[in-house]
Amino acid sequence: MTPVTAVSPIKPWRPTRRDYIVQCGILVGSFLASYLVIENTGFAGRLPLVIFFGIFAITSLAILSGMKRGKEAAKDAVMAGAAYTGIFALLLPVASILWTVTSRGTAAIYSGFFTTDMSQDPFSSTLDVGGIKHALIGTIWLIVIALIISVPLGILTALYLTEIKGPGSALIRFLVQAMSGIPSIVAGLFIYSALISGTGRGFSGFMGALALSILMIPTVARTAEEVLKLVPPDLREAGLALGATQWKTVALVVIPAAKSGLVTAVILGVARIAGETAPLLFTTGGADDTNLNPFDGNMGSIPFYIWKALIDGSPEAASRAWAGIFILMLAVLALFALARFLSRAKIVK
Amino acid sequence: MSNTEKEDGSMNSTATPATGTRTTSLGNVATASAAARARSEQPVGSGLEARNVHAWFGKYHAISDMSLDFPTGTVTALIGPSGCGKSTFLRTLNRMHEFIPGAAMAGEVLLHGKDIYAPGTDVTKIRLKIGMVFQKPNPFPSMTIGENVLAGIKLAQLKVTNKNDLMEECLERAGLWNEVKDRLNQPGGSLSGGQQQRLCIARSLAVRPEVLLMDEPCSALDPGSTLKIEETISELAKTMTIIIVTHNMQQAARVSDYTAFLLSDGGPGQIVEFAPTREIFTRPKDKRTENYVTGRFG
Amino acid sequence: MTIADIQRPHPSPTPRNLESKPRPSDRIFRGIVALGGFSSLIILGLIAGYLFLRGFSILQSEGLSFITGYEWVSSINSDGSEGAAQSTYGVGAMLIGTLVTAAIALVIGVPVSVFAALYLTFFAPQRIKRVLVTVVDLMAAFPSILFGLWGLYVLMEPGMYVAELLNKYLGWIPIFAVPVPVFLRSPFIAGLVLAVMIIPIVTAVSREIFAQTPLDRIQAAYALGASKWAMIKNVAFPYSYSGVVGGAMLGLGRAMGETVAVFTVLNILYQANFKILLGAGGNLASHIILKFGEASEEEIKALMAAGFVLFLMTLAVNMLANVIVNKTGRRGR
Questions:
Q1: What's the total number of domains in chain C?
Q2: DSSP state of B18
Q3: What pLDDT, on a 0 to 100 scale, did the predictor assign at position C180?
Q4: CA distances from B119 to A11, A13, A16, B115, B210 (A)
Q5: From C126's CA, which of A183, B135, C208, C298 has a CA 20 to 30 Å away?
């Protein structure tokens, strides 16, 4: 029902246009002042410019609000300035990373990039030969095997914590949290020490996938637990009250209700391991030729490809490393977008 | 349909007496509690005045065209069924409304004739002058009882010459001093619900507000604690303006000098009737008010 | 009825056992889930067990000097032939390097994270906040080799600039002094990269903790005339202090265990380097990677022992951090 006399809603607590103009003036003034400082002193470059700009802007804003409203308001302005600086300092590396990877990542990509491997050409060869076919195949194998191992274990762990709530639930939850923090190198070292070293078995894709599973299980388990917790308890009770066994209730009621969330958990798990490098160095051996068998022989992967290019050190190899990173980053971005999309779909439902 | 309703609403709000007539009607107020009050102690001033206040949450029009005058030294009760915008209206009076994302408003709220929403107004100073007590007692858990009373002093960095005197005075006025004077160093959470609420009142008093807004201050409390808080309100009304939102009509009848009945007919909440409390409860002019105060709905 | 029952005619009612015997299918189901549930316990046990077992002989022969020793000399070449000197394995220098780089990361990363989290919780408009939270999550998912590459090619230059400034103006403080002006690939720059890597974690945890500050207390503070800063300092911080500490410790755990990024950026030299601006140093994880390629049988065992130490260290830090965060989380709610 709308009132007859049209009264339009306003937000008088928002800064007025005058406030905005004053603030913009201060920002421009601070920029000019810091520019002058840079020009007339020994400091040079963009970084000191940004630092001086921040100092000048925050100080002048603080003085202004201090003059208008007193000491407390000045402190408040410094605080706000610090908060904005914090988020700026967080976003600056992200922006820089995204920009660098996109601008440098495409140089090494040519028509045959995805259909050739590096068996014929060293990393320092020109950018129109060689490719990442072997690495792509390897990474896909690694992810598939890691999925086969860690999705059941991760989701079972989550089910144990939410459905059975059996003995030691608190301990398990705690250990899963602790496990998600173990360094990735330890996972690789463990697989090497337990399954490769002294056993006569060599490096293989499977070993790498085992190491990656150690890192993936806690991610899947933690996210899946969060998701399963969101399934309303009355759904479970409804299932049990209908005479269904717990197994049927979980399989036919709980898991379908949490389906998209569980898929999100798996996707986040994949995003976690897709770019892991350290554990692969101890387990896969890293090949330059295409190896279709994950159970036998050294296997390449995108992270290992980047690693090798990095170690090589030549400009061409660096371009290859950036191309590998570019593809990894696209994959992570795509996985994230997918996870976002799925979790949004869940809310809509 | 919306037309007639709107006319009803605006008619009633225009029917609220202007400041001049109000002052004369002040003398006629003869509720038991008001009569006992020493009117001579009142500080002078035109107090708080809401003019054509609207409030929105996003697209939702919560309250419409509310105009009320709260003369200094009176207690005004806002009553009405749930969802009629009592609390929203209260929160527009000290600019707490704007914390809700998507909130918007229209109209003016005047304190001593100055619009508190005027550009350039220091909102923290406004809230120091117009204090607020919330529905659920909310003492700061990390502070002791004593520190809670002085929390406003600390938060707003006010200068106080003698903190202990102030603490005692505020607790005394909130009717809590005798109960807590030996345990000022205990955490605020150690008190009972009713004591916590009076601690919150004492906390509001420490910054010396001219107006105290109370948003259903007793709804989370037992009857005994409610009675204590009502005594406190009567005591405080000698020196300040109090606006209280309540669901409890007996409470409104007991503590207030004026009562405004608010109602939402599916649209935004509006003021249906505003009059001295006794009149609202004995001779309501509007049928809907009568229905509400006699308990026929709401 | 037995005699005992007659002698005590009115026994206090004993509660009846309500436990029902699950059906066979449910018992199998519960068994499988429990097995899966305990997988993390088993894996953690296996990791600790195997690394300890493999490194045991070295830990035994070196004793405490494995932790405190500053020398890592392998007398056996990777082809099995005996080298010249007596082999000694001590990870002390690299432990110091681990702590130094992680400490730099915390000193730089935590303030940025806390202020960024404050911005996200108390300043950001709803829509911007949602986007930025996703960005933070995304940043946490960036692979560490990406940070390493970026650190090497992009961050190195401004990092060296700052290092030179620090040295120029604060060089009288021992940690900022350098014997030779080599600022390239220093622990300071590695710490910078690690700071960027832990910022998303610490920010995400701090933001969640700040967001749990009860709304009614925040409103109470505002209603008392508090400015935003006064509210944050007196209401939000007391609630979230320990949770933020826990979040910082999670970041510490990640910084201590980081391998690839440190290896990429830092000039790995086996020495205890407190002069953080000088281009030499390392951490435990990067040391393991460096030595692994050409290690002899014996040195591999020493590396396993080093991995065991790293595992215990990060596990301890992580567990402590989680205890703190969980406790705060519960209280906040």
A1: 1
A2: P
A3: 85
A4: 11, 8, 7, 9, 22
A5: B135
Q: Higher model confidence: residue A30 or residue C273?
A: A30
Query: Given a cut of 90, is residue B294 above it in pLDDT?
Result: no
**Residue A297's closest CA among A146, A122, A119, A149?**
A119
Alpha-carbon distance of A191 to A209, in angstroms, equals: 10
Measured CA to CA, the distance from residue B269 to residue B284 in angstroms comes to 19
3-class secondary-structure state, position A198: coil
Helix (H) or strand (E) holding B60: strand B60-70
**What is the domain range of residue C172?**
92-332
**Residue contact B156–C225, C-beta within 8 A:** yes
CA-wise closest residue to B258 among B17, B11, B8: B17
Round to whole Å and give the CA distance between B245 and B260.
10
User: In what order do the strands lie in the sheet containing B211-215?
Assistant: B130-133, B211-215, B241-245, B75-79, B258-263, B270-276
d(CA A177, CA A223): 11
Amino acid code (one letter) for A312: D
Cβ burial, residue C73 (10 Å; 0-12/13-18/19+): middle
CA distance A248 to A241: 12
Residue B233 sits at the chain C interface (C-beta within 8 Å): no
d(CA C143, nearest CA chain A) in Å = 5
Residues C144-154: tens digit of each pLDDT? 999 999 999 99
Whether residue C193 lies inside any domain: the answer is yes
> Best interface-test mutation with A: which of B3, B4, B6 has the largest number of A CBs within 10 A?
B6
Give the whole-angstrom CA distance, residue C302 versus residue C294.
13
Please check whether residue C52 lies inside any domain of the structure: no
**In 10 A of CB C54, how many CB atoms?**
25
d(CA A206, CA A5): 73
Query: Which residues on C lie below 8 Å from B142 (Cβ)?
Result: 238-239
Both structure tokens of C332: 């906040």
CATH code of the domain in which C113 resides: 1.10.3720.10
Residue entry with tokens 């599973």: A213
**Tell me, what DSSP letter sits at residue B258?**
E
Q: Residues C224, C316: contact at Cβ < 8 Å?
A: no
Nearest to C101 by CA among C314, C312, C256: C256
Amino acid C265: pLDDT? 93
What pLDDT does A207 receive? 95
Q: What is the pLDDT of residues A215-244, one digit of tens each?
A: 999 999 999 999 999 888 888 888 888 888
Judge whether C224 and B127 are in contact, CB under 8 Å: yes
Q: Is residue C62 part of a domain?
A: no
- Quick check: A327 and A114 in contact, CB under 8 A? no
Decide if C30 is inside a domain: no
**Domains of chain A, start order:** 17-107 (no CATH), 133-343 (1.10.3720.10)
